[in-house]
Amino acid sequence: MNSVNKTLYIPLYGKFFVSKKGLFINDKKAEEIWEKEGFLLKGKAKSKWLAYYMGIRSAVFDDWLKDQINNSLDAVVIQIGCGMDSRAIRAGNESYKWYDVDFFEVIEERKKYYTESVNYKMLAGDARDCKWLTNIKESKSAIVIMEGVSMYLNANEMKNLTDSLCSHFEHVSLLVNCYTSFAAKMSKRRNPVNEVGVTEVYGIDAPQEYQSENLVFKKEHTMIPQNYIDELKGFEKFIFAKLYAGGLSKKLYRLYEYIKK
Length: 261
What we know:
Elements: H1 3-6, H2 9-20, H3 28-37, H4 48-71, E1 76-80, H5 87-90, E2 98-102, H6 104-110, E3 120-124, E4 141-146, H7 155-168, E5 171-179, H8 181-190, E6 215-220, H9 226-229, H10 234-244, H11 247-252, E7 253-260
Parallel strand pairs: 1-2, 1-4, 2-3, 4-5
Antiparallel strand pairs: 5-7, 6-7
Helix pairs in contact: 2-3, 2-4
């Protein structure tokens, strides 16, 4: 795998770690994959604080998705940059048409652990060219998740992606987390993704930078809600709240929702 593909090991470890501890999410698939493969991570990439952050981030995306599913009965779900994520299982709704999308090498690895069905498909493709959209026949409504992906795309690549989604679907709801420009600059020295070879990431300073002709910013979501912080106890709760939910984190990370006009 190339360096960007290898970043999938970081959230996979995080979900394995918190699931084993009974925190935030129940992810038996992450536990299964990690325990079987034992991918090599070191340094900050294997920090328990980062694992807590990854677990809460995934829980927040899960919560948003379940709410969208309940209110969009005719929509398909598309997860761009799925990595080894088991959100299709965690969502607990097998009646939904679901597409997990990632690079060819990632999908080939993923097929060792996941099985396609009538409603669940894995598509090999690059978020920057969107040719994979031709494999999706549905065109009415899409719920799109991009967790841990936007920082590897520049603003023009993101706009090309949102334009393509809006051209294909009559209605689009998108949730995406992103770096700020400050975070992107800081990442050159202190980001755990550096430890798997990534040297260039991107950030934005306003949600409107990801808007396209048809897709508009709807609202900002809380990245680290208090109810998940409260699952931690004592010293860990105090430190995590300072590291990942305090003023510094707000200078680094954002979680934005967009919708097609």
